[in-house]
TrEMBL record:
InterPro entries: AAA_dom (IPR025669), DNA_Partitioning_ATPase (IPR050678), P-loop_NTPase (IPR027417)
Protein name (Swiss-Prot/TrEMBL): Chromosome partitioning protein ParA
Organism: Gordonia jinhuaensis
Lineage of origin: Bacteria, Bacillati, Actinomycetota, Actinomycetes, Mycobacteriales
Domain AAA, residue spans: 2-194
Length: 282
């Protein structure tokens, strides 16, 4: 059975997409896992990181994105084809060979509004469009990683409706950590609505600055906070090479892409943390 993990936060720009992409690539190249990435964000960042903007344009023209899937679900039509939408063997890193992607689209912005209307009139259908579509292929994968937009709108809820667990990336400063209790509460409440628990795997410290007093004290505070289940032991430091990973540039290895001055080890360590948590809690 595939384990499904959503990456979620109410705060934008905290590294959700960077971490989701890194986890998929390291799960594949370092831990031999088959991974499906699902990009639920209309900003299409994960999609362009994995397949380039050029290839996305073509897919979008052909209706091979999640916007087409949701449009079908809303209008009761049947244009979306899972087989042609799933992009196989994505990532610009040669060593990464077992990551597939369901691409997003800028058109999801409008879909989001229509989906909100459907959620009011037919909540069951509005929440299960994604889960039902992915069902035929899901057990081919060891992990499904879902990158969510920085909100808990109906598109994100489609991700949560099929998620076993979630991680919360945060920059360790006051404004970024502020929304963590809200996220936990909203996910818990949604779990109650659908009748099962969506497990909190942990908070992921992102863009950590080892020379920052605020970052140091915020991490300590998070670790002491009894309402936070778990701060994963490995952090991702702020680094130029990690920022550059957002560009679709060919690399031979993960060390080449993420950098070999601690960055590779941090991503590998974080991936190991997530796999350990998932194996023990799911
Ligand atoms: N460890 C890091 N070091 C340096 N830059 C980073 C790091 N992680 C992410 N970034 C950069 O910070 C910006 C935001 O990161 P990212 O897009 O991953 O965040 P996000 O939470 O997905 O944002 P959004 O909420 O808009 O989806 C990007 O420009 C990214 O390249
Ligand atoms: Mg993002």
């Amino acid at each position: 059975m595939a384990k499904v993990i959503a990456t979620i936060s109410l705060k934008g720009g905290v590294g959700k997409t960077t971490i989701t992409a890194g986890l998929a690539e390291f799960m594949s190249a370092e831990f031999g896992q088959r991974v499906l990435l699902i990009d639920l964000d209309s900003q299409i960042n994960l999609t362009t990181m994995m397949i380039s903007e050029e290839r996305w344009f073509t897919l979008n023209d052909h209706g091979d994105t999640l916007a087409a899937l949701f449009a079908d679900g809303i209008h009761g039509e049947n244009h979306f084809c899972l087989e042609s939408a799933v992009q196989r063997g994505v990532s610009p890193v040669k060593r990464v060979t077992t990551v597939d992607l369901l691409p997003s689209s800028l058109d999801l912005i409008e879909i989001q509004e229509e989906l909100s209307v459907l959620r009011a009139t037919d909540p069951g259908r509005a929440l299960t469009i994604l889960r039902d579509a992915v069902k035929p292929v899901i057990d081919y994968y060891d992990y499904v990683l879902i990158d969510c937009p920085p909100n808990i709108g109906p598109v994100t809820l489609n991700g949560l409706a099929m998620a076993d667990a979630y991680i919360i990336p945060t920059i360790p400063d006051h404004l970024s950590t502020y929304g963590i209790p809200q996220i936990q509460k909203r996910v818990r409440r949604f779990g109650d609505e659908i009748g099962r628990t969506i497990v909190e795997l942990g908070v992921v410290i992102s863009k950590f600055k080892s020379n920052s007093r605020v970052h140091g004290s915020t991490v300590k505070r998070l670790r002491r906070d009894p309402t936070i289940q778990n701060v994963l032991p490995n952090y991702i430091n702020e680094a130029n090479s990690v920022a550059a990973s957002a560009e679709f540039t060919p690399y031979g290895t993960l060390k080449g892409k993420y950098g070999n001055q601690g960055q590779f080890d941090q991503f590998r360590g974080l991936t190991s943390d997530v796999l350990t948590e998932a194996q023990s809690k799911l």
